[in-house]
């Protein structure tokens, strides 16, 4: 059976990025590193590929050069159980040069896009009260990091 691994193209920061990501996510590790030899586009010894797992999902970082960069067309979504998890991932991933976006989106310091989404958002948005759902939607459209208490209050009309 074949498997699918997410591959992220970096311009020399693949190993640094992998180490950063495994420090943020539980049950994560770097599993293998291959290195460039002499005469390669990067100095000998620089990581060519870095294989790592984030919470059991396989990834590969490739130091391919400056030819391609990340954009919001691809992002990774983190489902968070509560506000503490939202705050944790938001703070970790925006640290040291990351940037906040709208509606739970952010870019980390490597330019990778993430969605930090509380599970409560799906619950709120699937309720039967269309007016409440509309108020919650208006509230989250104005947020950067999701605030679960504010979403619930907006749903209730407070």
TrEMBL record:
Record-linked Gene3D superfamilies: 2,3-Dihydroxybiphenyl 1,2-Dioxygenase, domain 1
Is Protein transport a UniProt keyword of this protein? Answer: no
Q: Which residue range or ranges hold the PhnB-like domain? A: 3-117
Pfam families referenced in this protein's UniProt entry, alphabetically: 3-dmu-9_3-mt (PF06983)
Any single GO molecular-function term of the entry would be: methyltransferase activity
Q: Could you give a single Gene Ontology term from the biological process aspect?
A: methylation
**Per UniProt, which keywords does this protein have?**
Methyltransferase, Transferase, Ubiquinone
The family database entries (InterPro entries) matched by this protein are listed as: 3_dmu_93_MTrfase (IPR009725), Glyas_Bleomycin-R_OHBP_Dase (IPR029068), PhnB-like (IPR028973)
Q: What name does UniProt use for this protein?
A: Glyoxalase superfamily enzyme, possibly 3-demethylubiquinone-9 3-methyltransferase
Traced from the root, the source organism's taxonomic lineage reads: Bacteria, Bacillati, Actinomycetota, Actinomycetes, Micrococcales
């Amino acid at each position: 059976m074949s498997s699918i691994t997410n591959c992220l193209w970096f311009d020399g920061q693949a190993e640094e990025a992998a180490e950063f990501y495994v420090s943020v996510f539980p049950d994560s590790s770097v599993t293998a590193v291959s290195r460039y030899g002499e005469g390669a586009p990067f100095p000998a010894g620089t990581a060519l590929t870095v294989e790592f797992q984030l919470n059991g999902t396989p990834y590969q970082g490739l130091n391919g050069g400056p030819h391609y960069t990340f954009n919001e067309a691809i992002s990774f979504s983190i489902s968070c159980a509560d506000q503490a998890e939202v705050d944790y991932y938001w703070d970790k991933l925006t640290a040291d040069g990351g940037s906040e976006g709208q509606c739970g989106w952010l870019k980390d310091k490597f330019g990778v896009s993430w969605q930090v989404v509380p599970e409560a958002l799906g619950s709120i948005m699937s309720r039967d009260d269309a007016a409440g759902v509309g108020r919650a939607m208006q509230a989250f459209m104005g947020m950067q990091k999701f605030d679960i208490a504010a979403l619930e209050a907006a749903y209730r009309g407070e």
